[in-house]
Amino acid sequence: MNDLKKKAVPGKPGGLNSEIQSRIGHQLRAMYDDVVRQGVPDRFAELIRKLDVPAGGPQMGEGGGSGGNNDGRN
Amino acid sequence: MPLTDSLRDDILASVPSLRAFAISLSGNADRADDLVQETLLRAIANIDSFQPGSNLPAWLFTILRNLFRSDYRKRRREVEDAEGNYAKTLKTQPTQSAHLEFEEFRVALDKLPQDQREALILVGASGFSYEDAATICGCAVGTIKSRVNRARSKLAAMLYVDGAEDFGPDETVRAVMGGSGG
């Protein structure tokens, strides 16, 4: 099982041994999912909860210089 | 669009995969969480520029990736210096073979060029389509495909093949991209 390592040399340029490919995919996801499974740390849940965007907005792109402000249409 | 409760929930739901992406990119959990925090702050501050109905995870990943890139440029020297130490730390830990293999994988991943690593992670782990990955990275779909292929063959070379250097990724890429080449 584990002796795939150092054994398989893809003979042809162009085709990665499919077993190696799936092994890489598996390890990649295992590593990634390991973190995903940790869920949402409190600090982030807290952060999002606290950040209620005020009605006025936190100085959003006022300097951007888009013209027509006022009350838009109507 | 305004920050509705459901949008807030959706952002929160993306946090675990944002963290996983950030850790894969930076190889450092603390720095990754700082990146995620910064990403969330920016996302919320710029929520008006999010198009309702478009792909929220892709939007968030784009922000995180851009933050990482600009941060990375600043810290380049530091990172290069740390790279060797990071790998060494992992290698010297006596571990069970399965775990060792896992660490070897991380080290190998860490050695990939930035562009290739992020493409591989987005497609191979985050589950984005090539199209979404291209949007996130601001490049063409074909570019993403070739980066993913290069990344895969480099990893294979590092992990599973002795004397790996002599099987070049370019041939793989050419084969994959082939057809149009004539």
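Chain B touches chain A through 50 residues (CB under 8 Å).
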